Amino acid sequence: MFQGETAITIDDKGRLTIPTAYREQVAGECANRLVITYNPFEAGSLWLFPHAEWEKVRDQVNALSKVKAAHRDMQMKLVGAAAVVEPDGAARVLLPASQRATTGIEKKAVLLGMGNKFELWSEQAHLAKIRQSIGEDDITSEMAELRL
């Protein structure tokens, strides 16, 4: 289970270093294999899945009917763009250049542990998103039941 927010620096070659706190989990639970793909719901963000978790997501997404445009879009953004990466000896993974360019992820980024996956955000997109408050009209019935 991944959780927490970490400021990340992307090096000149487009690599991010996996934070020390997650290295054992990535090595053990993820068998040192992550899958990087687009977040289909938020611009400025990539998803990083442990390989085993990714296979479940991939199979669910591929099972969607190809008849609906939204299904095809999700399949393209998640499955079509997916890249398997393995950390090198210095715990760095190379982010695909096309994904960095599309999301605007440059030198400064934010890595969020989101339970079963990581989200990697461009610093600007993360700041904009985190500064948005959840309005009363946005609260779902499930959210209203939370005891925060």
UniProtKB/TrEMBL annotation:
Keywords: Cell cycle, Cell division, Cytoplasm, DNA-binding, Repeat, Transcription, Transcription regulation. Gene3D superfamilies: Transcriptional regulator MraZ domain. One of its GO terms (cellular component) is cytoplasm. It is found in: Cytoplasm, Nucleoid. GO terms for biological process: cell division; negative regulation of DNA-templated transcription initiation. Residues 5-53, 82-125 form the SpoVT-AbrB domain. The keyword Ligase does not apply. The keyword Cell cycle applies. GO terms for molecular function: DNA-binding transcription factor activity; transcription cis-regulatory region binding. Belongs to the MraZ family. Forms oligomers. This is Transcriptional regulator MraZ. It comes from Rhodanobacter spathiphylli B39. The gene is mraZ.
